[in-house]
Amino acid sequence: MEKKETARLFYAKRSLGDTLNYSVDFVKNNLKCLLKFMALLILPWNVIQAILMWMLSGALIDFAAIADSTDVVAIAGLLGVKHLLLYGGMMLVSVGAGTCLIALFFSLLKLNHEREGGLAGLRFQELKPLYVSNVFKGLRLFAFHILLGFVIALLMGLLAGISPWVVLAFVPFLFIFMLPLALLMPAYMLEKQSFFKTLASSYRMGFITWGGVFAVLLVMAIIAGLIQLAASAPWYIVTMVEYVFSLSENAATESASVGFNILSGFMALFLFFGQAIGLLFIYSGMGYQFGHASVKSQEIKVTDQIDSF
Questions:
Q1: Which residues cross the membrane (predicted)?
Q2: CA angle, corner 88, sides to 83 and 94, nearest 5?
Q3: Angle, vertex CA 202, rays to CA 213 and CA 174, nearest 5
Q4: Which 3-state string (H, E, C) describes 132-149?
C-alpha cells in the first residue's frame, strides 16, 4: 500500500523533508528488487572492475620491487605502460557500469510509479525494453557531460591565462549555473522528450528549485559517501597489509601475501558494488526532486500565462 501511494504521488509538490523521506524510502522499500536486478545487470561490470583494480594495485605494488633490478628504467617503463592500459580499461568499464546503473535505477523508478503495485512481482522481461532504451539515453548523457567538461576545461584554461584570480572568481558562478543540470538525468530518463528540449526544461526547473536541488544533493551525497566509505575501507586495509608483505622476502610472508592478494580482489568487488548502492540514494534524491520541480515549474508557467492573459 505504501509503494502504491509513493508511485501515485511521484509528480507532486513536496517540502524538502518530504522529498528526502520519499527518496530514502524508495531505496529502502525496494532494496530487495534493486539488489536483485543489480546482481543481474551491474555485478558483472563490478567483477570486471574488481579484476582490473586487482591488477592495477598489483602493478603499483610492483614499483616497490624494482629497486633491486639491474635495469630499473626499463622495468619502470613497462610497469608504467601496464598501469596506463589498466587505468584506461578501468575508465571504459566504469562508464559502462555507470550507464547501466543509471538506466536500471530510473527504469525501476519509472515502473514503480506506473505499475499497479509498484515493483512487486516485476520480471526482467517487463523491465528489459525500458532498460535498453535508457542505456542508450545514458550513453548520450555521458557524451554530453564529457563534451561539457571539455568546454569548461578549455574555458578555465583561457581564464587562467588571464589571471588565477579570474579563475577563482569564476568558480562560484560556474557552480551556481551548473547545479541545475543535476535534474537533466532524471528528466531525460523519465520523460519522452528530445534531448535538447529536456535540457532546456530541466535547466529551467533546476533554477526554479535551486535551493532544493542543492539541499537534496548535499544530503544524499553525504549518505552515499558514508556507504561508499564503509564499502571501500576493507579494500584499503587489505591493500595496505598486502603492500607491507610485498616488502618482505620471507617465505611465510610471501605465502601470506598471496592470500591477501586474493582477498584484495574480493574486497575490490565489495567496494564497487557498495559504491553502486551508495549512488542509488543520489539518483533517488534527484528523481524525486525532479518530480517536485516538474509540478512547481508547471504551476509557475500556468500563473505566467494567466498574468499575460
A1: 37-64, 84-109, 138-159, 165-186, 207-238, 258-283
A2: 125
A3: 60
A4: HHHHHHHHHHHHHHHHHH
